[in-house]
Structures are given as structure tokens and as C-alpha cells.
């Protein structure tokens, strides 16, 4: 029933209230003014916070960072056409990494849809393959349950982004309030508990399996199953390897943690997967950056694959036991059924590899070692910070040298590999966790992809710290060109970069420039003292430092390159 | 490469076909034929598709389809006893001599002449894929001017629901 007072925008905001949305990131525009007009009263009353980003992509990544850090659904908004299209990279980033985000986009009036109206774009058509689901709401009577559904779909099952496209006449016109029901979701039935028979079979395999390894991914963190993974590992003395997104799913300081395998993983983790006899996979999806050459990956292993998305079973690797269910629910049933197990020869071997192949780097002749910067941030923050990364060398050094013990403390674009993710994600994480220390480990290339969000962080007094590992290159591409293309450095030279410290200062942030190794730690300590604005530290790192170990693309753990070839 | 027939019950909403076909394109699934139609329930449509691929591809197609929020249920009919039909319309060249032959062939296949032109006949035939293939092959000797075929539709035999 339409009431005179309520508009579509009111309906939207009332469902936000139901969903306990505390913050919205993004930018308004012509067709979302009716929403912002209603939001005005809510923000004035302090009922909801609106963080105005300087680019819609920043808004999408901030909502994503907020969601990953807090476990809640992140919400972002943009106007029609260019605004909505600027969300695309952020939505796809969230989609690839299974992050719950709801995006509200404006659309031209329903009567104008399809006429190439001003700022009209086919937003639902564009975002169909990069969202978990999306809606174009043409009927005001559908709005309330669509918004409810969107939140439910975003956070349930395998989480992901959901977009709602809202024509201006639907948000400005008379609203229809309907009470909640999910009857329209008859086709949506994510598995929860997992098949008890398969779980019993998995328990038996773990009891008998030789050379077992736990291989955990982001699903463990999404499901809140870290404590159960720890219980399982400790009960069975099985060593744990984690993916990039699984970082923090099992404490890296734990004696049973072997670290990250894959293209830039540590040697013991790579060898453990290569030689495993039993792989217990929880919330991970056998990404090519982990497996390398599939024909040589885990050839002798029986595989248990626990994943909430049944489509992940048999997509890349054929598991011997597939369990479709929420990692927490499945492990809660599995752990009591598993027999305690003592470490043996296999564990001795893993331990030996760990001692034999520690992570290491050389002090460069010129410039600061980037790994040293990350180590120092780790030490100064006591490993307690929420760390975001950009993408490329900075991301891999952060993954290697910043050890994470707690879930939701390492936020990185793993699947899509989005440069420009880290800084806005750090802003979102800081908004969601105001008391946390948040660091973005960045490169000089990546930081320039969303550097405009300095304004957002300054205005909102967010003390996000950004460590720019500045080598004046698009470093990861340069590394590949050095190693595989005879040093033909093509299109990677970033010399002529701005003075990042002065850029930061121009925005009202603190800017620090560090050129000598002995100044690294004092600069980090100084940044830690700032609590009312962002800090940029521009570290002049060694220009041609490479990330090692490295398994070249399409190769296997046998081809691992431990350090710089001569 | 085996041929498989899959049916999916989907919400009768705008954009559902685009979601499904977009998924096939993005994941590189080869769809040989596709038919979408209403069902006994006006809120639900049925999609029937034939695909070529190994067991893993089939498994992925079914699971990825099932993941779409607007897809209610997915069935693999490879092992089922089914009644399958396609419809074919075909305009065949004829002259005085061949006209009666074409009519005769049409009768053998229980087809119908649905339009008569000066130098051509339009024929309609229904049946499973093999029958239509055979029909088209025979008529091709006379010269096919135009041809159109629907995708396959089917129902499972007996009282079992499709």
C-alpha cells in the first residue's frame, strides 16, 4: 500500500535500517538525488554515515575493505551511467574474492530506459557476469523485498556482491512498504551442513592418510572457521598451508603453519603440496597461482575438498571426497570424528624443509630492501595491524613478510588482482574498525590508481598509513621482463613519479620521504603516532629487487627459483 | 565428446535468458541448441539445451547454472527415457516432375505441406533430431531454399516429473 509520506528512497533506507547498515560509501549524481535527499535527514541525525569518496571505484573498494575487515555487508552507491560503470572493477574484485557487498546504483527514469538517455548505461547487463546477482527495480512494490534479498544473497552461501539498479522515478515516487519474505528465492539454496556420510568418509581418510596437509583459503575466514581449523590441525598434528586470501585463517606464528604456497609461496609450503598424500582443502579453489602446472600438482594425493560452492568441486581438480557446505558447519562435525594423530617422518621432512629454505633476501647495494620495510612494519605494529595491499611486488612482499595471526587482518585483491585496491580498502577497514591500526602496503604504480582517496581519508580523519615501496617501476611486470624477456623493459618505467610526500601534504595528510635504511623504522614509528589523518611514507627501495621464491607461470614446484639467478 | 541434454526450470523474469547465455559464453560452454518456453506454471519457464562435452564440462554446466539465483532447478537427461521433439520448416525447390516426389517423402516422414509456391513447397516436420536430420538430408537432393529448426524440447516418459 502506497503511503503519501513514503518514497522509494524511504523504503530503501528503511530496509538499510533493518539491515543495520551503519555506513555507505560512494558518490551521488543526477538520478540518485532523491536517495541523497532522504539520506540527508539520516546522516544529520547520525543514524547512518555517508563517506563521500573521490571516485566510485574508491567507494566500491572501501565497501569491500569494510566488509572484509568487519564481516558485515559493505554498501556502496553510484549514479547511473559513468558512476555505475566506475563501480565495475570494485564489484568484480569483490566477486572474485567472495566479499559481501551491496551496490545501489541510480538509473534513468523507467520510461527513458532504452532510449540512450543522458547518463544511461545498461548497468545490470554490464554487471551480470561480475555480481552474484543483480536487480533492476521497475515496480515500487518490489523494492523492499529486493533490497532485503540483496543483503541476504550477498552474505549467505558463498558471499558476493549484489547490485540494485534503481530508476529515478522509483526512488522519487511513492514507496510501497512490504514486510519481509524471501519467497522469491526458491532457486537459491546454498548448502550448509554438508553430507554427513562424506564427512565421516573424510574423517576416516584423515585417520589413515599418509603425508597429510591442510590447504586453507578465504572460505575459512568467510565462514568464521579459523578456530576449528586450529583445533583440527592441533588434534592431528597436520601442517597447514594457506592461500593469499587464507592468510590469518590459521595463525602464521603457529608451529604447524608452513606459510603460503604457489607462485611466490615459500618452499616448504610448495613442496608440502607437491608431495602430499592427503590434501584436506577447506575454502580454497585450486587457483592457478597456487597449483602451477596442474599435471604436476599433488599427483600422489587423495583430495578432500570442503567448499560451500559445489561448482568448485571438480572445476580444476577432481576430489576424492567433495563436501558441499559451510566450512564452520562441516568442520564442527568433522573435528570430533577425527582421531588424534602423532607427527611422524612426513612432519620431520616438512620441518627440515622449513629449516632448509627460510625466506631470505639480500641487502641491496643501493636503496632500501623492500622486504626490510615490511619486516619493520610487522615489528613496530607487533603483527597486530590490519594490512591491505595493492597488487604486484608490494602484495607478495606483504604476504611473505607480514605474518598474520588473526582472520580479517589481511585484505588483498587475490582473484582479480586489482591495482588500486589497497588504499580505498584500508579506508573502508578503518571506518569499520576505528580502533585498529591500518596499513596499506603499496607500490608507486598501484597507489596512483586511487590516490584521489587521500581527500576522503583526510576529511574523515582516518589515520590510515600507506607505505609506498617506491622503485619507480611497475615492478612485477619489470621482474618478468627481466627474468623471461631478456631485460627488455617495455612500458614499465615510472620515473617522473610525483613527490608522494608532498602530494600527501597538499591533501592535508602527513607525508614522509625515506631514502636510507636507518630512517625506515623511525618513519614507521612516527606514522604510528599520527591518529587524526592519513600518512604516506615514500620509501625509496632498491629499483630492481625481485620477489623470490618464484615458480614461473605454468611451471611446478620442481622449477622453483629460490633467489636471483646470476 | 558426448552430447547431453539438460533442462532447467527458471524464473519467468526479464534477463534470465541473458544470465544463462552469458554464463555459457563466459565459461566457454558450447551450446548446440537452446529452447525456452512457458510451462504449466506462468511464473516459471523451462530451458532445454543440448551441449557437447565430457563429464566434467557437463557437471560444471549444471552446477554453474544452478548457482544463478533465478535458476530454480537443473536436470541432466542424458540417462533418462524421454520424448524429444524438434520442429523444422523447410522450403524445397520443386518442378513438375519432382513435386509429387517431395509430397511423397513428406508423407513418409509424416510432414505437412504448409505453403505452396510456383517453384517451391514449404514443408513442416516434427520429430527427434535424427529424424529431422534424415528428412533434411533427403530433401537436400531437391535443393533446399530456406530452412529453420527449433531447439530440442523434451519431457521425461512415464509419470516422473521432468
Quaternary structure: heterodimer
Radius of gyration of chain A: 24 Å
Q: Termini distance of chain B? A: 24 Å
Computed CA radius of gyration of chain B, to the nearest angstrom: 19 Å
The CATH class designation of the largest domain in chain B is Alpha Beta
The computed structural class of chain B is: alpha+beta
**Count the strands of chain A?**
20
Number of helices of chain B: 4
Give the CATH topology of the largest domain in chain A. Rossmann fold
Tell me which CATH architecture of the largest domain in chain B applies here.
2-Layer Sandwich
The largest sheet of chain A, given as strand count, sense and whether it forms a barrel, is: 6 strands, parallel
Strand content of chain A: 15-25%
User: What is the residue-averaged pLDDT of chain B?
Assistant: 93
Annotated CATH topology of the largest domain in chain B: Alpha-Beta Plaits
The CATH architecture assignment of the largest domain in chain A turns out to be 3-Layer(aba) Sandwich
Which strand-content bin applies to the residues of chain B? 35-45%
Number of domains of chain B: 2
User: How would you sum up the global shape of chain A?
Assistant: globular
CATH superfamily of the largest domain in chain A: Thiamin diphosphate (ThDP)-binding fold, Pyr/PP domains
- Low-confidence parts of chain A lasting 5 or more residues at pLDDT below 50? none
Quickly count the domains of chain A: 3
Structure description:
The complex is a heterodimer of chains A (566) and B (162). The mean pLDDT of chain A is 96. In chain A, helix 3 (56-70) crosses helix 18. Chain A is an alpha/beta fold and 566 residues long. Helices cover 37% and strands 17% of the residues of chain A. Chain A has 3 domains: 2-185, Rossmann fold (3-Layer(aba) Sandwich); 196-356, Rossmann fold (3-Layer(aba) Sandwich); 370-547, Rossmann fold. A 6-stranded parallel beta sheet of chain A has the order 3-2-4-5-7-6, with helices on both faces. Chain A has a 6-stranded parallel beta sheet with strand order 11-10-9-12-13-14, with helices on both faces. With 162 residues, chain B is α+β, with helices and mostly antiparallel strands. Chain B is built from 4 helices and 9 strands; from the N terminus they run βαββαββαββαββ. Chain B has helices at 16-27, 55-67, 96-108, 129-140; strands at residues 2-11, 31-38, 44-53, 71-76, 82-93, 112-116, 120-127, 144-149, 153-156. In chain B, the strands form 2 sheets. In chain B, strands 5, 6, 7, 8 and 9 form a 5-stranded antiparallel beta sheet that branches. Chain B has a 4-stranded antiparallel beta sheet with strand order 2-3-1-4, with helices on one face. The two termini of chain B are 24 Å apart. The chains are: A alpha/beta (566), B alpha+beta (162). Chain A binds chain B through residues 124-125, 128-129, 132-133, 136, 153, 184-188, 309-311, 313-315, 318, and chain B through 10-11, 15, 18-19, 22-23, 26, 56, 59-60, 63-64, 66-73.
Amino acid at each position: 500500500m502506497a503511503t503519501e509520506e513514503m518514497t522509494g528512497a524511504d523504503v530503501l533506507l528503511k530496509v538499510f535500517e533493518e539491515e543495520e547498515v551503519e555506513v555507505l560509501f560512494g558518490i551521488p549524481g543526477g538520478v540518485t538525488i532523491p536517495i541523497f535527499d532522504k539520506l540527508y535527514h539520516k546522516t544529520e541525525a547520525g543514524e547512518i554515515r555517508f563517506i563521500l569518496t573521490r571516485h566510485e571505484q574508491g567507494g566500491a573498494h572501501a565497501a569491500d575493505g569494510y566488509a572484509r575487515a568487519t564481516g558485515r555487508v559493505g554498501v556502496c552507491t553510484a549514479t547511473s551511467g559513468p558512476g555505475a560503470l566506475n563501480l565495475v572493477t570494485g564489484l568484480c574484485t569483490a566477486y572474485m574474492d567472495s566479499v559481501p557487498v551491496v551496490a545501489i546504483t541510480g538509473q534513468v527514469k523507467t520510461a527513458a530506459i532504452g532510449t540512450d538517455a543522458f547518463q544511461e548505461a545498461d548497468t545490470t547487463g554490464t554487471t551480470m557476469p561480475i555480481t552474484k546477482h543483480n536487480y533492476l527495480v521497475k515496480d515500487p512494490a518490489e523494492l523492499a523485498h529486493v533490497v532485503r534479498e540483496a543483503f541476504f544473497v550477498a552474505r549467505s552461501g558463498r558471499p558476493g556482491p549484489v547490485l540494485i539498479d534503481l530508476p529515478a522515478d522509483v526512488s522519487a515516487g511513492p514507496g510501497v512498504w512490504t514486510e519481509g519474505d524471501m519467497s522469491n528465492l526458491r532457486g537459491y539454496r546454498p548448502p550448509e551442513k554438508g553430507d554427513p556420510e562424506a564427512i565421516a568418509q573424510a574423517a576416516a581418510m584423515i585417520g589413515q592418510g599418509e603425508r597429510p596437509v591442510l590447504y586453507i583459503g578465504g572460505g575459512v575466514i568467510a565462514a568464521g572457521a579459523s578456530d576449528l581449523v586450529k583445533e583440527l590441525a592441533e588434534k592431528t598434528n597436520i601442517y597447514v598451508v594457506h592461500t593469499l586470501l587464507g592468510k590469518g585463517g590459521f595463525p602464521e606464528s603457529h608451529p604447524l603453519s608452513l606459510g603460503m604456497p604457489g607462485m611466490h609461496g615459500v618452499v616448504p609450503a610448495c613442496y608440502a603440496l607437491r608431495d602430499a598424500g592427503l590434501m584436506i582443502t577447506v575454502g580454497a579453489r585450486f587457483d592457478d597461482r597456487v597449483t602451477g602446472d596442474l599435471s604436476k600438482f599433488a599427483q600422489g594425493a587423495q583430495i578432500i575438498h570442503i567448499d560451500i560452492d559445489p561448482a568448485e568441486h571438480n572445476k580444476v581438480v577432481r576430489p576424492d571426497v567433495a563436501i558441499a557446505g559451510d566450512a564452520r558447519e562441516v568442520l564442527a562435525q568433522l573435528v570430533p570424528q577425527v582421531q588424534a594423530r602423532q607427527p611422524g617422518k612426513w612432519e620431520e621432512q616438512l620441518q627440515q624443509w622449513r629449516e632448509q629454505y627460510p625466506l631470505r633476501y639480500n641487502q641491496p647495494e643501493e636503496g632500501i630492501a623492500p622486504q626490510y620495510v615490511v619486516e619493520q612494519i610487522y615489528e613496530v605494529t607487533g603483527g597486530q595491524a590490519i594490512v591491505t595491499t595493492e597488487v604486484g611486488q608490494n602484495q607478495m612482499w606483504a604476504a611473505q613478510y607480514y605474518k598474520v595471526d588473526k582472520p580479517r587482518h589481511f585484505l588483498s585483491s587475490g582473484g582479480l588482482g586489482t591495482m588500486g585496491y589497497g588504499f580505498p580498502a584500508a579506508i573502508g577497514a578503518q571506518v569499520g574498525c576505528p580502533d585498529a591500526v591500518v596499513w596499506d602496503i603499496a607500490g608507486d604504480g598501484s597507489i596512483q590508481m586511487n590516490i584521489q582517496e587521500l581527500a576522503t581519508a583526510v576529511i574523515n580523519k582516518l589515520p590510515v598509513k600507506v607505505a609506498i615501496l617506491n622503485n619507480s617501476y611497475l615492478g612485477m611486470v619489470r621482474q618478468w621482463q627481466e627474468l623471461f624477456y631478456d631485460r627488455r623493459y617495455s612500458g614499465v618505467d615510472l620515473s617522473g613519479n610525483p613527490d608522494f610526500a608532498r602530494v600527501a601534504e597538499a591533501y592535508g595528510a602527513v607525508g614522509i620521504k625515506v631514502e636510507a635504511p636507518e630512517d625506515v623504522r623511525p618513519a614507521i614509528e612516527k606514522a604510528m603516532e599520527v591518529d587524526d589523518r592519513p600518512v604516506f611514507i615514500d620509501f625509496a627501495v632498491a629499483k630492481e629487487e625481485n620477489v623470490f621464491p618464484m615458480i614461473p607461470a605454468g611451471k611446478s614446484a620442481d622449477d622453483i627459483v629460490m633467489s636471483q639467478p646470476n | 565428446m558426448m552430447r547431453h541434454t539438460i533442462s532447467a526450470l527458471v524464473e519467468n523474469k526479464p534477463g534470465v535468458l541473458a544470465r544463462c547465455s552469458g554464463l555459457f559464453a563466459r565459461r566457454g560452454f558450447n551450446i548446440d541448441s537452446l529452447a525456452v518456453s512457458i510451462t504449466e506454471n506462468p511464473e516459471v519457464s523451462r530451458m532445454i539445451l543440448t551441449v557437447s562435452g565430457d563429464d566434467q564440462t557437463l557437471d560444471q554446466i549444471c552446477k554453474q547454472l544452478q548457482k544463478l539465483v533465478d535458476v530454480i532447478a537443473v536436470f541432466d537427461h542424458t540417462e533418462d527415457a524421454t520424448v524429444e521433439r524438434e520442429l523444422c520448416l523447410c522450403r524445397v525447390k520443386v518442378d513438375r516432375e519432382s513435386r509429387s516426389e517431395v509430397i511423397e517423402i513428406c508423407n513418409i516422414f509424416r510432414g505437412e505441406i504448409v505453403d505452396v509456391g510456383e517453384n517451391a513447397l514449404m514443408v513442416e516436420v516434427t520429430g527427434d533430431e535424427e529424424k529431422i536430420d534424415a528428412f533434411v538430408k533427403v530433401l537436400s537432393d531437391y535443393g533446399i531454399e530456406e530452412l529453420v529448426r527449433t531447439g530440442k524440447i523434451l519431457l521425461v516418459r512415464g509419470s516422473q516429473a521432468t
